[in-house]
């Protein structure tokens, strides 16, 4: 089979100026993301509370290549994050800078890929090299600066999106070069890039289907279903087979890694999947009221009006793919590829509390952007100036909207405030904003949000637990105890709820029950340092500081940077008149948290006592 090629003069006129301009404009659109921090939406569990990824030493690399942390296998993403830690420590700005740079690189590669695909699809129009460059750059920018990309770029946790997306784009580029040159190094490059993309995030598993689609059009190596079923298509299938095997292996690994919540029935999954397609198409055209969390409804009625409308939209898209097959093969293939690339994220296997998410469009979005670029390329001459102006206005509007949307990811308060502003009955959003208020010491306001989360949401153990903590802080331990108990009932093995209930019981004077709860918490989770600290604190309050030290030591063994454990260990040592040892622990606590005023005050006191004599430190 003959392979379609770029028209002579286009290939020789390659230039990197357009991709560089695309990358620069992408960076400009995402500049506000560089001021963002880590947020309490997975960043806390992935980074601020996770010591395992910090660095690129043997122990960190072993963890990265063996962990299924939070249901994902993504060692390549973890390696880049470990490198960030080497460069920036825990300064979130550096992590955000890396995300933006990777996304800008992805945008540049998409521009190169778009240029080649558009030249192959419309060789006559592509003879106008200036118009081809504008069309390719426009397509890349419509992908890169669209507000739907913000979640993937401005959220450190979604490093896996931008990194996998870059590997995806490089895979397509290398394969196109191989298809035209038949040089093995390009094929090897495609396989390597695809492997890296899979190991960054499993969503890249749709590459084999996209390669087949490209061979249909614009490569035209199997231009009809009859050709696709003939022996003449065997070389294409042989080329794609290794990609399919890699994708199948990664899909199996993803199933092992996933810890999915309770699944909907088949009808419910179809309804959610159809609604997701409708949502993504709608927000692509009109990206307003975007939110970090679209929470899954409590119940999904497949015959509800919203889902019936979604079925109609999906059917219309399917009909468009069929009707365009003869009139506009490129548009038909692009729409079909878009749907295929969305498949892994459409809720076939639900993973998380969301019904849809902006980040799930990252891999599929270039297909729709290519359609827009193609329209610009083949527009009649009399309409071209207007079409180009419209494209520039759309790109400018997207950049402005992206700039504004980045502010949502500035910090946890901004993020959760946005969630509850868009969905006032989001129980997860209410718990999120309540947690941020509690961290600011605004416990009375936090209680109101926790209570609302419990009222509007499904059974939510974390809401009950966190409500109990806020009530304890407000001096209402008797009201807090039932909340901790309910949390433990809803979530089997909830060590934190038992540990927190122990604290409340200590305030109520029920020492025996409190110590039993601390013991239960450490039994349920042997790697839970806070339970050990709480147990030690209880023993200090019971005037048993010597017994408490073993629990602080256990907490420090789990997390050497636990400033709370260091501080309370110092208090226990001071009770034993071991002032020099106590001073050492207070200094270590201050090394972790220099702003800890209480630790500094205690350090001053024990240093004075040590100089007065009577120190019992060995």
SSE order and pairing:
Layout: H1 17-29, H2 43-48, H3 58-66, H4 75-88, H5 92-121, H6 123-126, H7 129-144, H8 150-154, H9 159-181, H10 184-200, H11 207-216, H12 225-228, H13 234-257, H14 266-285, E1 294-295, H15 305-327, H16 329-342, E2 354-356, H17 365-378, H18 381-406, H19 412-422, H20 427-439, H21 443-456, H22 461-473, H23 477-490, H24 495-507, H25 511-524, H26 529-541, H27 545-558, H28 563-575, H29 579-592, H30 597-611
Antiparallel strand pairs: 1-2
Helix pairs in contact: 1-5, 1-7, 1-18, 3-4, 4-5, 4-9, 4-10, 5-7, 5-9, 7-17, 7-18, 9-10, 10-13, 11-13, 11-16, 14-15, 15-16, 16-17, 19-20, 20-21, 20-22, 21-22, 22-23, 22-24, 23-24, 24-25, 24-26, 25-26, 26-27, 26-28, 27-28, 28-29, 29-30
Task: Give an account of the 3D structure.
The protein has 30 helices and two strands. α7 runs parallel beside α18. It has helices spanning 17-29, 43-48, 58-66, 75-88, 92-121, 123-126, 129-144, 150-154, 159-181, 184-200, 207-216, 225-228, 234-257, 266-285, 305-327, 329-342, 365-378, 381-406, 412-422, 427-439, 443-456, 461-473, 477-490, 495-507, 511-524, 529-541, 545-558, 563-575, 579-592, 597-611; strands spanning 294-295, 354-356. The chain is elongated. It is mainly α and 618 residues long. The longest helix is centred in the first third of the chain and has 30 residues, at 92-121. Residues 9-13 have low confidence and may be disordered. Strands 1-2 form a two-stranded antiparallel ribbon.
């Amino acid at each position: 089979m003959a392979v379609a090629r770029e028209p002579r003069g286009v290939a020789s006129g390659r230039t990197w100026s357009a991709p560089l301009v695309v990358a620069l404009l992408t960076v400009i659109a995402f500049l506000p993301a560089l001021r963002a921090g880590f947020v309490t939406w997975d960043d806390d569990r992935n980074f601020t509370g996770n010591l395992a990824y910090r660095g690129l030493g043997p122990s960190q690399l072993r963890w990265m290549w063996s962990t299924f942390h939070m249901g994902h296998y993504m060692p390549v993403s973890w390696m880049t994050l470990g490198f960030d830690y080497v460069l920036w420590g825990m300064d979130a700005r550096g992590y955000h800078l890396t995300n933006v740079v990777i996304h800008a690189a992805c945008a540049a590669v998409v521009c190169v890929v778009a240029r080649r695909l558009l030249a192959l699809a419309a060789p006559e129009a592509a003879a106008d090299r200036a118009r081809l460059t504008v069309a390719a750059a426009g397509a890349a920018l419509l992908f890169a600066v669209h507000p739907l990309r913000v979640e993937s770029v401005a959220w450190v946790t979604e490093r896996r999106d931008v990194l996998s997306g870059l590997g995806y784009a490089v895979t397509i580029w290398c394969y196109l070069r191989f298809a035209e040159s038949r040089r093995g190094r390009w094929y090897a490059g495609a396989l390597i890039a695809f492997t890296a993309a899979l190991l960054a995030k499993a969503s890249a598993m749709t590459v084999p289907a996209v390669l087949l689609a490209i061979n249909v059009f614009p490569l035209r190596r199997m231009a009809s279903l009859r050709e696709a079923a003939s022996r003449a298509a065997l070389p294409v299938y042989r080329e794609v087979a290794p990609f399919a095997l890699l994708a199948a292996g990664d899909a199996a690994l993803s199933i092992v890694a996933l810890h999915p919540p309770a699944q909907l029935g088949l009808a419910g999954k179809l309804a959610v999947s159809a609604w997701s397609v409708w949502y993504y198409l709608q927000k692509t055209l009109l990206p307003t009221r975007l939110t970090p969390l679209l929470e899954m409804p409590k119940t999904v009625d497949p015959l509800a009006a919203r889902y019936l409308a979604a079925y109609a939209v999906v059917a219309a898209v399917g009909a468009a793919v069929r009707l365009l097959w003869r009139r506009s093969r490129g548009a038909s293939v692009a729409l079909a590829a878009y749907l295929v690339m969305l498949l892994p994220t459409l809720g076939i296997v639900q993973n998380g509390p969301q019904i849809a998410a902006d980040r799930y469009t990252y891999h599929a979005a270039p297909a729709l952007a290519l359609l827009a670029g193609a329209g610009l390329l083949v527009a009649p001459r009399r309409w071209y100036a207007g079409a180009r102006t419209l494209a520039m206005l759309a790109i400018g509007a997207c950049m402005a909207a992206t700039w504004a949307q980045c502010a949502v990811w500035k910090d946890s308060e901004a993020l959760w405030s946005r969630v509850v502003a868009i969905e006032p009955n989001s129980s997860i959003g209410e718990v999120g904003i309540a947690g941020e208020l509690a961290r600011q010491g605004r416990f009375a306001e936090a209680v109101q949000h926790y209570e609302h989360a419990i009222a509007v949401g499904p059974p939510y153990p974390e809401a009950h637990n966190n409500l109990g903590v806020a009530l304890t802080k407000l001096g209402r331990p008797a009201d807090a105890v039932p909340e901790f108990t309910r949390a433990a009932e809803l979530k089997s093995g909830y060590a934190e709820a038992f540990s927190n209930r122990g604290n409340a019981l200590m305030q109520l004077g029920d020492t025996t029950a409190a110590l039993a709860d601390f013991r239960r918490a450490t039994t349920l989770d042997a790697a839970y340092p806070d339970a050990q600290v709480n147990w030690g604190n209880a023993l200090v309050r019971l005037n048993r500081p010597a017994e408490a030290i073993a629990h602080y030591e256990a907490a420090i063994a789990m997390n050497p940077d636990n400033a709370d454990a260091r501080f309370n260990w110092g208090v226990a040592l001071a009770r034993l008149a071991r002032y020099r040892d106590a001073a050492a622990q207070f200094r270590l606590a201050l090394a972790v948290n220099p702003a800890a005023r209480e630790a500094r005050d205690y350090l001053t006191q024990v240093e004075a006592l040590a100089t007065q004599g009577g120190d019992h430190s060995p």
